[in-house]
Amino acid sequence: MIENLDLGMVNWARAQFALTAMYHWLFVPLTLGISWIIAFFHTIYVRTGSEEWKRLTKFWMKLFGINFAIGVATGIIMEFEFGTNWSNYSWMVGDIFGAPLAIEGIVAFFLEATFFAVMFFGWNRVSKGFHLFATWMVAAGSNLSAVWILVANAWMQYPVGQAFNPDTARFEMQNFFEVAFSPYAVNKFTHATSSSMMLGAFFVISISSWYLLRGRHVLMAKRSIVVAACLGLVASIFTIFNGDESAYEIAQVQPMKLAAFEGLYEGQTNAGLVAFGVINRDKKVYDTQPAFHGFNIHIPGLLSLMANRSFNSFVPGMKDLVYGNAEHDVLGAVQKMELGRKAVASLDAYRQAKKAGDAAAAEVQLAAFDEHKEFLGYGYLNKPEEAVPPVALSFNAFHVMVFLGTLFPLIFIGYLYFSYKGTLERKKWLLGLGTITYILGMIASQAGWIVAEVGRQPWSIQGLLPVTIARTNLTSGTVQTTFFLFLVLFTLLLIAEISIMVKQINIGPEEN
Amino acid sequence: MIERLDYATLQHFWWLLCSVVGALFLAMTFVQGGQSLLWQMAKTRTEKDLIINSLGRKWELTFTTLVLFGGALFASFPKFYSTSFGGAYWVWILILFTFIVQAVSYEFRRKPWNIFGSLVYEGFLFLNGVVGILLIGAAVGTFYTGSNFQLDANNFVTWTHPFRGLEAALSPSVSSLFNIAVGLFLVFNARTLGAMYLVNNLELGEVPEMATRLRAACWQNLLLSLPFCLLIVASLLFMRGYGIVDAKGTIEIVSFKYLRNLLANPWLLVLLVAGLGLVIFGAWKTAKTTATRGIWYGGIGTVLIGLTVLLLPAYNNTAFYPSKVDLQSSLTIYNASSSPYTLKVMTYVALTIPFVLAYIAYTWRQMNRNKIGIEDTGDKAAY
Predict the structure, then answer these.
(1) Contact A500 B341 (CB under 8 A)
(2) What is the ipTM of this complex?
């Protein structure tokens, strides 16, 4: 199965997934975040009856709608892409992975789809109370759908609650609750939704700051900023905490990812976190080149603290994880591949014995397989160095995310402080920075996904299923064609979306 | 109770559930049917806006039902998901393409600075309404006529036709004719439903001329759909099928397989006849009387037809996704399903479906209490 592998196809399929996922993620966090903010605006309107708040709610709702439509358009391809480009994956883990996707459809998408129409068109059709309820349901539905897709993604990073069935040659679910409530999934959900809430707040702040700089819709802009900055501040602090929790989780279950995004080649006790450094792109795990070019700053012990909650703990580096480190009891990819190959061989022998009707031999082979099955995926790697993800990309993405993530609460504090003092309109520097915060937030958010997904390579399911096996049997030409099809289509739709959005922002809320 | 269900019962139940979702999707394609009628029915800008705003309040439900259909199949019959999507690549990519462009079109069509102009977005809606539904129909046709694939020992798919799925509609063969007939039936049925829905949902008094056109279109499209329907039914009565012939799951070609299935499950015949009767009655009521509630008959009728179309090739030991080139690679509800554990878990989840249907029905009633009139198209939030 490996011998006739078209690596070009696998890479194009990965590129296509990255393309469609990143496009989709341009719209999703805004939907997740701003839906709550709109629900707050709408609630204030219903409670005060003020026409000003109604106008404000309607304005943000309109922008939400434009964003939502393209989010749906880019989303449908994601679900079906698992089948079209990763069909072996769909078969091998569909028993586990399909469930959260179906649940997402049943419990979340219908909430969104049903109440979306009420939220937009219900102003004079349904009672005020039911209308407000619908707005909250859209927010709940959007975020519920995030729960399930993130459960599915978390399972790819940390495949719990499953077992390999040698008869069907696939992974099967053993415990749904382990899958749904895996600590990895909980962290992923809280990190993704709180950062999205922050992004929603930045969207409101960016546009409102632009209005303030131009002296337009001043009252609406100031009101919007206060609500958004309050929610944003809470969300940004929460994001830092659950981000730290995520890093701890990664250190426990994906030490290679952690080592890659910190550029840590040699394992260390009291390992330092890189505060500044230019990563050496040419370095390979087996050579002796330095990991960084020139000057770099490490904060001593912080990586150990983040990874193991103890300054003096040992954090394995990429070298340890590839070649092993007996002193610290780290099994390397070299050793895991050996065990994995044994698992693959026993599995083949088991199947042949079964086919031949030799029950006794089958039992022996199955026992041998069971002994090494946790390393099955490693049996399909060609060289141990393949276990290392792209280091420079992971490193840069992680540090961009962390740098921006640390800056964000300060921006919200700035907005709240000057709003409180009543001098916000005069702080042109802050408003200028404010107009681009949405872009900064989006960069951080996309970078986060790069860390998560690039850092998991070469696995589609961590340690169990490499991307080279997960693919569909397609030519690279076919996948290239659809790659460019989606690239062109999504780019055109994005241009239209931005253009419409800019026009609507320019028009602003309807004046009375 | 769910804990005690045996594997085969769960497999039957889940195929039934997927079929119900698929059949509901077909009924909801009144949205696509309406989209394909847009240019023909609306002669003025106001009429156009009315149609778009009426369908625009429902398109997402149809879309979501399709997504759920995919998701439910993934969870319950992953081998179908991997074989069909990975194998019949181009047919699915094209279907998806038409749904991607649909999703932005309502929102973007009338917005200033939309770059491409209203006509392009209306064209997208037309494409989705015609090509999208035609290809879905052709894909459903392959449940009967079979596809060109082989599965290896790991159940990994290899497609043996260079068109990768499009041969279902494009190869010069009898199977293609059948598949296209299914596609065209669905297209005309969707248009019949679309006309019925618009008659039901629009304030017809404001656009009497379009009302006449819609009622006439309803009847015309019904008449256009019937020959394809007859062709499909007649073929099914005589067609060979792919049956499971022994306990090991061996697949063989069985003559008159679908007729045998109908006779073994006569309730399917009842569903089919009742479904067709309801669609015809709904269309007649819409076209020949001043009634506006024809869509309910048409919609329920379509659900019943859809159920028959999806259950007939799967129940009674039949391969629902047969391979023409390697019979033993054919998929049945037994060899393509998830594990018993997953099916049980999903059955618990499915208990929430009545609740979901209830809130959809409640909201639908709330929103459809008043008809869509010209006033609604002037609202700033309107499409």
Answers:
(1) no
(2) 0.94
